[in-house]
Amino acid sequence: MSELDMTFSQHAGSDRHLLGWRKHNLCDRFRKPIVISLLIGGDVLAAIAAGALSLALTRELAPIMSPGGDRLSIVFLILMFACLRLYTGCGPSPYERFRLRTIGVFVFVAVNLFMSFSTNPTSSLLIAAACEAILLLIIGHYVEGTIRALLVRFQLWGAPTVLFGCGDAGRRLAHLLMHQPALGLTPIGFIATSADDASQPTIRPLPVVQSAESWDRIRPHVEIAMFNSVDELVTFSGSSTWRPSCRLMLVEDVHDVQSLWLHTRTLGEAIGIEIKRDLYLRHNQMFKRAIDIVLSVPIALLLSPAIMILALGVKLVDPGPAFYIQERVGRNGKTLRVLKLRTMYADAETRLEEHLSRTPQARSEWQRYFKLTYDPRVLPIIGNFLRRMSLDELPQLWNVIRGDMSLVGPRPFPAYHVNSFDEGFRAIRMSVQPGITGMWQVSSRSNGDLQIQKAQDLFYIRNWSLWLDIYILLQTLPTVLGGKGAR
Q1: CA distances for 428 relative to 410, 448, 457, angstroms
Q2: Most-buried pick from 25, 87, 260, 336 (CB within 10 A)?
Q3: Domain count of the chain?
Q4: What pTM does this model have?
């Protein structure tokens, strides 16, 4: 039995289980109204809060500007989000939702600004409008994330989805959807196709429908059907089995290429998909650098007193320098001198070697994660606090200002960590600027082993965009406050 099969064995079920899916869930038939109502309600609250807060902050600058919290403005905002398909309850992905939300917010604020200019044409309105847009985007993003997490917990987020084909590709897709419910697609079962080999049974994560009678009974519950084969999709869409209300989706495994922000072109009867590497374009690198400076300088000035207080706390616990410089691998393989607050004893390396030699289990954990659940090197209280909240990374804002790092990017690792990856991935990873935070930090952090780190770094490099950077920056705060995966 493969590792994938063993992972899925606990989810295996029968045809009877599939037909009873959510049958006892009283909220199932009202899933869409519940999801739409909560999402709209969250955006209404976010608009009221952002409007009131921006009005309070900019009252002296633009006292006549129409606040975002009035009724007509809120109705317009909700209609804007509805047109952008943010209230479907079945996706798109959180990154794409953030991009669409940003577009909606700025169109909303632009229209609001235009109407205010007609009665009070002053330059101060621009500051007030920018403040309102930023607050509305940030508050709305966090409110939506909270609502989505709540809906996921009660199994209300995600459209019921069946997968045509239960081979290896289908099982990998089911694994992805089951472990990433935020994508908005809830797999409920497989539909056996002619390509499936019934003579070789395998443990699957979901039950399999093989009879026409079973499919007829579950069909009214299905909102999305996913196919790995164009031929199967064409056959199904031309049959009487398909209901127009059920959306069809062709799925292709493209883990080695870009998957976000794709552009399609119609080429006669063919479909072309454009693949780009935006992070390597010179003008995008300059734009990313400009954002780093604009954000990191004021943040560094604002947090300087807090950094000094934390440094004093380190010295009180263990005499010695409060800051230290660690050599890590930077862009193009150059040595990067990373500035950090000290969270370990001065003789940390000696303590680590002694601990690993005494504890084989700890050595195994170290070889897999390069982190330890119990680390004897860490300073008591202050060390764990700094690491859990990632406050020891704050001095790296100086590295960002210097141009050694970016705010968002693959985390710079020590040479021994980088050398654990294969040569091809090392070359890709070192071709971009490392960052203080990144995809790994906001998704798995220290809970992710080398393979997860590799997958998430590749995803970021191949799918970079301004939207993804801002999304990661916003997700860093709840990740740090929640202490997810901190070691």
Answers
A1: 11, 19, 9
A2: 336
A3: 3
A4: 0.82
Looking at the fold, whether 324 and 452 belong to one and the same domain comes out as yes
First to last CA, the chain: 33
Residues 324 and 218 both lie in one domain:
no
CATH number of domain containing 170: 3.40.50.720
Length of the chain: 487
d(CA 405, CA 340): 13
Q: Are residues 68 and 124 in the same domain?
A: yes
Instruction: Render pLDDT for 81-103 as a digit per residue (tens, 0 to 9).
Output: 999 999 987 778 898 999 999 99
317 and 440 share a domain?
yes
Per-residue pLDDT at 278:
85
Q: Pseudo-torsion of CA 54, 56, 62, 64, nearest 10°?
A: 100
Same domain, 137 and 204: no
Residue 11 pLDDT grade (very low, low, confident, very high; cuts 50, 70, 90): very low
Sequence letter at residue 100:
L
How confident is the model over 45-67, as pLDDT tens digits? Answer: 999 998 888 888 877 655 444 44
Q: What range defines the domain where residue 305 resides?
A: 282-343+378-482
> How many C-beta atoms lie closer than 10 Å to residue 199's C-beta?
5
Residue partners of 133: CB distance under 8 A and separation at least 6: 105, 106, 109
Question: How confident is the model over 162-210, as pLDDT tens digits?
Answer: 888 887 888 888 888 888 888 888 888 888 877 776 545 556 677 787 6
Let me know whether 387 and 297 are in one domain. Answer: yes
List residues bridging with 328 in a β-sheet. Answer: 336
Phi-psi sector, 198: left (phi>0), alpha (psi -120 to 50), beta: alpha
- Over the Cα atoms of the chain, what is R_g? 26
- Inter-axis angle of helices 348-358 and 360-369, to 10 degrees? 120
